[in-house]
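Progress narrative, work stream C.
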Amino acid sequence: MKEGSSELYPEDLKLIDCDKEPIHIIGKIQSHGFLLVCDATTLEITYCSENIDTLFNKSISELLGSSLESLFEDYLINDLKNATDHVKLSPVRLHLNNEDILLIAHKTGNSILLEFENFQESQNAFDYQIQLSEVVTRLSEQNNEQQMCDVAADLIKKLYDYNRVMIYKFDENWDGIVISEARDQGMETWLGLRYPASDIPKQARDLFLKQGVRIISDVNEAPVSILAHQGVERNNPVDLTLSELRGTSPIHIEYLQNMNVGSSLTAAIIFKGTLWGLIACHHYTPKFVNYYERQSCKFLTQVFSSQLLLSTTNTLLEKVNESANLRNTLMKQISENWDISEGLVKGDVNLLDLNDASGAALYIDDIIYRLGDAPEERDILKFILEIKKRSTQNLFQSNEFILESDENQDLIRKASGVLCVFISKFKNDCLIWFKPEKKSTVNWAGNPDKSFTNEKNFRISPRKSFEKWSVSQEKKSEPWQDYEVEAASVLRQNISEIILKKYEEVKTLNNKLTIAYEDLETFSYSVAHDLRAPLRGIDGFTQILKEDYYEELDDFGKSAIETILDSASNMNQLIDNILEFSKVTQYETERAPFDLAKITNDILDFLNVKLNHPKLKITIDANMPMLNGDAKMVTQLMQNLLTNAIKYTGKSENPHIEVGSTLLNGGLFYYVKDNGIGFDQKHEHRIFKLFNRLVGEEYEGSGIGLAIVARIVKKHSGIITVKSAVNEGSTFFFNLG
């Protein structure tokens, strides 16, 4: 230990998790350079590398605690005082101890770091500029990601002459794969090999994002310790995040030694602010690349990243435009009939066309519509419920979606990948796409489960074998691409906008309906009061004429009196029917279970059928299931149906009416059947409309009774239908939803 100093990082690092290794405060620098650290305010030297005395011909004890102003000229001191945090100053060429030295300085917090490395003349600047221009031109000429990677690897190997240059891409789990490679002749290929995320842990990836490019000039050379002035607190080590000389993790050194690597250069490929991958250069002997060459490498990597972004953006735009056209077609199909299911499933373009899925489904209003190679309905319902458990968002994606409770092989084959967007999470309405399982063999550089081994004293050690280790990958699909996810998200938004637009239209119609109801009430009042008053006068005065003058009238006069009285009676009945229809329209239903057979018998007693129609035979199924509905409204419904049946069987020799229940199209229906005059089946929809009558004047009626029946069924969200034939009777079937 040098007098007047203390080693900043004296303990051996004992780790059981390489993700926790504090490599930004490692307390060492590489041996090809020197380090001074001073207080940003006072310029007092607080730290130095253990080899600094060989650069300044001063002892460490003399340097630590002294002022930086005693070492450098005023112009440099002024630049250091005005340094901006985390921004490197322009490098300065110095002549120290008979050597040409390059000074690279930057400020970090309350400290200024001064790093020194040997200055090396680069090749002819003009030739170098031509080389860089060639690199930029060739990268810009490539059409896709793979071509750009191949060109970048070849050009960087040519420029820096490393034994091996690899383009290394991270996946969503931060595992890396070598997607391109340029190597010396005779070397085995590492192309396609994967490396687990632990090979480049999170804190190392974070440093690459901030620093951009880094070299290790000699893997096997001992690092140089950073010493602190004795007055400096030991819990405040030097932050080497942006350091050019930062020492290397002993774990990583051992890792490289196990690969027989002698030196390396690594540059970060940054894509949209995220570490996309690395350009990793390996050499099998020591190799130093000077600062300016490293910055050129950083520049080239930035050009590569920009071209990668441009290429990816162009591809994305093509896909986005394609999906936008498809979405427009889908929206047009939905808007034609305001039917989401018809527009998304049954048109010329459907959900499945929107991305590269093999199956799709729409779940809306408790109905599932399946497209392509989609799972069964029961499995889709399980998927939807599981997705709601796993995520609170309206969009969910996974390329390894397996239901824990059911590892059905056919389900895994069809739907290892799932992309789901909810239209309404409350109702579970959603669009869902499926990608099939893609079985593959993944080649790892060594066993990924043994990336590190625990040795004695709890120190981790990197794996020693990098031989190809093949692993079968199952239960995963191709990943969902950004444009697929974006297309699904925008489609959901478009559908929501259509629903909102339809809601506004419905709201407007409701307002109009409210006004119509008010008008109907006014009309009903008018009918009840304004029409009945003169009608009562007509009827009253005609009765007086009949009582006082009937015998004095001739036959025509008598006929006229009877016609007036009959017309007044019919008019009065029509007013009653109109008022009844108005009441049904405005009435709010109150459902409860009741016995339809009992209500039917009560109606027949009220109509005094046994006395008024002694020949009529009526059969009522006493075992009909209970009916759930508004008893008052259903009583009116049954009275209208029975009155019609009695009326139209009046001329039959053996009139018969039957009331019961039956299964129709898989559902329970109640019916009223008669053997009366019937009608042509082609008129089945006409008879339920207001004032529509299919018979002549020989049968009384206003044409409102069946319209009231239909309105009562509709108020219950039910169905009414009729089967009939001329002279063979009619059967009315209904349910109440």
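Work stream C, second folded protein:
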Amino acid sequence: MTNPHDRALPRAVRLAMPLAQDVVEEVAKLHGVCIRPVPLKRLDTHTGRWEIVDVPCGSPLESKCPPCAKRNKQLRKAQCREGWHLEAEPAITPDEPTDEQRWLVEFRADIQAQRDEAECHGGDTTDWDAVIEGLDEEINAAGMRGNVLGRTASKRSRSTRRRQDAPDLPKRKMAHTTLGRTFQTPDGKTYRPSLFVTLTLPSYGKVKDGAPVDPDTYDYARAARDALHFSKLVDRFVQNLRRVAGFDVQYFASVEPQKRLAPHLHMAIRGTLPRAEIKQIAAATYHQVWWPSADQVVFDGDHLPVWEEEAGYLDPDTGEVLPTWDEALDQLDADENAQPLHMIRFGDQVDVKGVLAGTKDADQCIRYLSKYLTKSLGEGLDSQAQRDHAARFVDALRYEPCSPTCPNWLRYGIQPKNAKAGMAPGRCRGKAHKPEHLGYAGRRVLVSRKWSNKTLTEHKQDRRTWVLEALGKTDEPTDPHRYIWRPVPAGDANVPPLAMRLLRSVRERQRWRAHMAELQARADGQDLSANPHAA
């Protein structure tokens, strides 16, 4: 065996030897151990004991932590499979409020009354508002969802009248169910089919092998805005789908990049509708972005708005304060001839496929839904033409406002919402402007609330409980509410080096796998003893 510390060896030979820490990380990946664990302090509320625990980073991207990406992918596949072809209505019944919860709300009512009385007499309500804010936090901590006052801010609304160029949709009376129709064959068999739908965006120019044939005529501006607002279009499609279906349609969807880099949607839908209706819904779905105009550049280069405390951003020439986001929207609302900044619609390509539970088609669709979940939208650029295409796409996004808080609004003479010092056009840190996301800042996986009647955390807990039972650790606590978690300060001497933590995790994973293999061998042996002909 060659000794790397032998100085008689040529330098090239020594450098060709793998680093020990790199091998530790590679072995950790092979055993499914998170290579970027986050150390946290955990308090067991039953025993009062503090300990430092490594928590998986949970990275959704393969480039950051492949084991966590693979684990998340498997969880999503399990979530998709479990909720797609339910035969019974998922029961979601809120628990009865506890005495503590009732007392907190009653106390909140008393404090609110005293605060209102102080306001009526012209008194200072700052202290009362602070007490109310703390009480609202206690109410949520006690296991109650939402805010006791509900929505307090007024919501801007526009006419809901459909555009003349959008076809009308049928509307059925809503039924209180999430299950689709069942069909019976003459021989008495019952089927409950579901759907797998793929929706794409329209064309922006002729494309060959994932890159524009003529980049100069390719509509990058429209492609960028479509990517930015694609998630809103998906929301509109779901709303229209439920109106036409007549029941609370549940779905599991994933957003993936096409080869031309435009986002498109794969959606598993519980229940079924005629294919013609799905295509009609897609054709009639649109989303209008009612934002101030971003087509005329007001400030550019070194000629940019200047920040002044208390006032906000000013015109560098006139000293006038730029209109705030709310003021710009007020001007838009007051203009009867105003047009939306952008309107987004689906393309003509709509694929609809019927799927039955337990078939190869169902398994294939689930694999397809999770195919790209471990990769970013910007990965998979195979050629120089595609890389150039991606660069032009990112350049088109650079000055495009991605949200009301985007600094790019300064370029068009408007203060972003919640403006602060240091903002500059072209320097937005939002997810949409990062090359790996290509304009799409929404969630990659979209799951309706009544899909499997479980959150992803609950699916993860089910998996952990199953593993512990298989390992014979039924006494291991599984209640996630038993613990209180706190961050570990940087440089804490109680946290071992990363390599040591990885080695410990690898050893634990080896022990689990050996135990699982032993259990499997026992099960196989029992099967053979019960049926000797099976050998």
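Residues 3 and 9 are 9 Å apart (CA to CA). No further action is required on this item.
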